[in-house]
Amino acid sequence: MQMNTRVLGRRAQSVEINKVLRNTFILLSMTLLFSAVTAFFGVVMGISPMVGLVVDLIALGMLWFVLPRTANSSAGIPTIFAITGLLGFGLGPVISYYLALNPVIVLTALGGTGAIFLGLSGYAMTTRKDFSFMGGFLMVGLMVVLGASLLNIFLGIPALALAVSAGIILVMSGLILFEVSQIIHGGETNYIMATASLYLSILNIFQALLQILGAFSGDD
Amino acid sequence: MDWMKILSAIGIIAMMVIIWPSVKHATRNSPKGSAQDWMAFIKPMLLVVGFIILLIMLVR
Predict the structure, then answer these.
(1) Could you tell me the residue ranges of all domains in chain A?
(2) 8-state DSSP, B60
(3) Is residue A133 predicted with pLDDT exceeding 90?
(4) B27 touching chain A per CB within 8 A
(5) What is the ipTM of this complex?
(6) Interface of B with A in 1-20 (CB under 8 A)
(7) Which residues of chain B neighbour A216 with C-beta distances below 8 Å?
(8) Of B12, B27, B55, the CB nearest to A139
């Protein structure tokens, strides 16, 4: 009897985890499509880099102060769409710049980001490895990358900018493994927060790849 | 110093301040990984590095 209850409990938990995983991937694909549309408008409207930056800062403000308060309610869905839509729109000037430089760079970065995300999330799902031990390491890595990019705003060293982009790709790749593993092992039960985390990792990898490919293509 | 740089710096500093409690919490409470755990992390990271080198060669 006790064993049956335990088996049923485990099965219910497994169903709940699969539900979170499925909802996360559905919402993630919808937000990515939506931000692709808003990015298209950002490119077509030819918004300035300053407008792009202000839009990004508004989106980050919503991500930090609005999303955590709405993620457990129905208001979380429009909030995540608003955030990802704004981040996509803010990407307009960056995409316009690289499209003018060489459109192949944008397509390669897009395909590369998709392949990295699918490969890493597939790896975390098939191995079912618990990557929670990486939490501290990834957070410290993120702080180092942020510190280096802050320093380079004032120094403007191209090699440091490339090193920061490479660091961003590695930290964000680690965060994809971490987040997918958190969902699989029941550490993340809110699919809206999981979507926000994965979306940001994908967006950062895409931007960093654009910078690296732009620098090495010989057109930059 | 232009406004773009100032705004970017403010954004990054705000991000560092906001994630700082999570960094402290994660560094104190993360479980320790074994050598096998770290290898399971390093292998896909090496593949990502190799893949990026491949992409760079494609656009050159």
Answers:
(1) 2-216
(2) -
(3) yes
(4) yes
(5) 0.93
(6) 3-5, 7-9, 11-16, 18-20
(7) 56, 59-60
(8) B27
